[in-house]
């Protein structure tokens, strides 16, 4: 197999809210693809702190903060935080609009009270036990903090949390100064959960991919991107073949070249077989092993 560079979003692509983790079939697919000589990169909106549980993950690098920080082979090859004065302005703006938020940095994700409550639900894995929710949030370096606690850290992205997209997020978008943009990264109206990401509009997952390819001397023709939300569209535009998860938003599916199954229905495994990143034999072995495991647990 010719070496491919595969860029995988985390939330909604690898990380399942329903399962509170990564589906086993996705983990096995990644292991098999790397065994076949392909390079795997986690390409996420999360900051360095929020991927601490993934740092020992079997992959070849990370694109974090929606492109604001890039690692390859454990080397930081790009770094562009938001200036502190801009962070202060955004914090005041979001407070004034009544939106919860998280300031996502290298050492932690610093949450307003409302933002923290939203992330407790997100990381809960379906548990209603608050102690479990807090423990899960801490595993992702997500904390409730007061003003100024983030001052010693670099902030790479800001997430604004709400119950519904209308009417606050369109108003927030109008009030952002250049070069900053607002991207809808998640909208779950039934769960009263929305995320709008504030990022530097000149930096995105696609520019992060460019840094990775420059580092390796790789070709765009050998790239594949897999994602589920609007912040993955710049990634789709930067790769040769773009794949949307079955649970992706309509606009993300429209931007993709192909749509795989849902995250909970072996979406990554199926995509890897479709792209010839794994063999039919490996695909069958993974499904058989999962079936045996499920049988032993009954």
TrEMBL record:
The keyword Cell wall biogenesis/degradation does not apply. GO terms for molecular function: magnesium ion binding; phosphatase activity. Pfam families: Hydrolase_3. Keywords: Hydrolase. GO terms for cellular component: cytosol. It comes from the Bacteria. Gene3D superfamilies: 3.30.1240.10, HAD superfamily/HAD-like (3.40.50.1000). This is HAD family hydrolase.
């Amino acid at each position: 197999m010719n070496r491919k560079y595969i860029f995988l979003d985390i939330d909604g692509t690898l990380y399942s809210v329903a399962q509170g983790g990564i589906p086993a079939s996705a983990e096995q697919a990644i292991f098999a693809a790397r065994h076949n000589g392909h390079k795997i990169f986690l390409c996420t909106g999360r900051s360095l702190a929020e991927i601490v549980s993934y740092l020992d993950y079997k992959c070849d690098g990370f694109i974090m903060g929606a492109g604001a920080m890039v690692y390859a082979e454990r080397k930081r090859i790009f770094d562009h935080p938001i200036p502190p004065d801009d962070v202060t302005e955004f914090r005041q703006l979001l407070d004034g609009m009544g939106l919860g938020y998280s300031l996502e940095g290298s050492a932690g994700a610093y949450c307003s009270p409302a933002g923290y409550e939203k992330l407790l639900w997100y990381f809960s894995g379906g548990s209603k036990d608050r102690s479990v929710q807090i423990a899960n949030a801490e595993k992702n370096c997500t904390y409730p903090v007061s003003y100024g606690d983030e001052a010693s850290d670099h902030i790479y992205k800001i997430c604004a949390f709400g119950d519904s997209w209308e009417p606050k997020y369109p108003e927030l978008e109008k009030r952002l100064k250049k070069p900053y943009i607002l991207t809808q990264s998640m909208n779950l109206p039934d769960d009263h959960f929305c995320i709008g990401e504030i990022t530097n509009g000149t930096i995105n997952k696609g520019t992060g991919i460019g840094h990775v390819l420059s580092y390796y001397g790789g070709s765009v023709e050998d790239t594949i991107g897999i994602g589920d939300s609007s912040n993955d569209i710049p990634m789709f535009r930067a790769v040769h073949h773009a794949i949307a998860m079955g649970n992706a938003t309509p606009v993300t599916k429209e931007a993709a070249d192909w749509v795989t199954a849902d995250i909970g229905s072996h979406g990554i495994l199926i995509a890897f077989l479709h792209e010839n990143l794994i063999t039919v034999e490996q695909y069958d072995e993974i499904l058989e092993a999962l079936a045996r495991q499920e049988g032993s647990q009954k």
